[in-house]
Amino acid sequence: MTDSTISGDIVPDNIAPDDNASNTNTPVIQALFGGTFDPIHYGHLYPVEALARLVGLKQVILLPNHVPPHRPQPEASSQQRLEMVRLAVQNNPLFTVDTRELERQTPSYTVETLKSFRQEIGEQHPLAFIIGQDSLQTIQTWHKWEELLEICHLLVCSRPGYQHQLSTPEMQQWFEKHRVDTPFLLSQKPHGYIYLAATPLLNISATDIRLRHQQGLSCDDLLPSSILQYIDAHRLYRQ
Question: Hey, which pathway is this one from (predicted)?
Fold first, then answer.
């Protein structure tokens, strides 16, 4: 899994959930969101909170990864990144944390993690994986990417007016084949759909936060104060 940079506007509080998605008679979607989280910040948390309101998600499982296959190795240790994730969501009932990827010593391939969740919840329970628009654009580079929709839905954080064309006609055809515009449908099948959520996105990246911290610049509006305190206490991102 990758820790994607997310860009855009501030998330409003008045995003209403889809009426059908929030119906108590529909199956609960198990949703996962993975990343390096080096460190976790509002660009991770706010879009996912908005997505949860739109789709009617009851819980999102955060998956900090150990060895990202397509990115430089994290600056903070696995344990430090896990502790920061836990601090960031400790008072937010929407989020919980899963450590299975941190317990691996091999690269964290999304498809393998999804298969492990699928085995646990059964073949018929709706399972969804949350990604950013940038990840959708490069998803054909992921390990066994063709198997993803055989295991889960993809929930893509996007915004109105964003370019939705993928890199090749073949990828665009794949996207159009699986795309749905109604969140309710996600709970009616265990996997196979792509949903683009019109969530406002934040122009925040972990790379920028690390750089700003090294330069002594304020990061108060970029991540929770508990994370800033942790970073300072453990002298992270000072090189």
Answer: Cofactor biosynthesis; NAD(+) biosynthesis; deamido-NAD(+) from nicotinate D-ribonucleotide: step 1/1
